[in-house]
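ok so i was messing around last nite and threw this chain in just to see what happens. nothing serious, just curious
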Amino acid sequence: MRITLTLDDEIAAGITKAADKEGITKQKWIIAACRNILEPENDTEETEEQIPEDYDRLHVTIREKDNEILTLKKEISHQIELKDTYSKFLEEKIQRIDDLKEEIARIESMSMTMTDQILLDRDERIKDLNNMIEHLQAQAAAHSVALQSAINPALEGKRQTEEMEEITQSKNDDIPLIKKLIFWK
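result:
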């Protein structure tokens, strides 16, 4: 296609200047300018039709990413809460263990004190019982001696009486019996 244009001097000077800048001829510059003008219209129509699709797709992707970010933030917040709760639980557990250790140490101390006290009490009671037994044995020995000293004269007197009765009852010819009695006295 051949086109003949009539342009005023100003536009012609602008085309010449632009073509010189590009390093091409005026005809090529005009053809390139026409293409640029015509192609962007076609591209603009295509782009306007494609932009909403791309925009919607990008917008949906951005929404999905935003939702994913919100979900991850909630997950992180939940994990932080779980970590804090677990840390508190561990601190309470450690405190309970420390409390139990102190209680066990206190019970052991009380047990040792009570054991020592029981042993001391037992030793004192054993000493007291031994002293009481020795005292009772001494009393029993004293009572035994007193009883023997009180009973011996009575027994001796009774024995002498019995011997005398035997002597009187026996006949005079039984002199060896009298000698035996005298010997025993």
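not much to say yet. Residues 26-169 form the longest helix (144 residues).
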